[in-house]
Write a structure and sequence with these properties.
This protein is mostly helical. The chain is about 45% helix and about 5% strand.
Amino acid sequence: MVTLKNPQSLLIASRSTRAAVSLWEPGFQNSIEGFNGLWQSKVWQRHHCRNLTALEDVSARYIAAHHAKTAVRREAAPARRRFPASFAFDLRAPLAGTMIFLRRSNERGEVNLL
């Protein structure tokens, strides 16, 4: 595990889109866990597949239906930019811009990465 002591510098320098989750707010993770719960109840618990291929087929149909149902929300989301291939990280560059965390940080602003 690596601890970034100043993740703000890396994210701002990369000019990446940043989004926030407060220390005690599980909002970002809720959408992922919510989908996992839906998948388990709609696919895993309802269908008793004889093999992995059958499970993959059922799962693919469910995911396609879920994507169709949620397409309007995804299409309304802001576009994501690719991480620039020419990016060079400069720790001495001044901080500027807006910081929004998707990773939980501790009270010192540090982020643990696996």
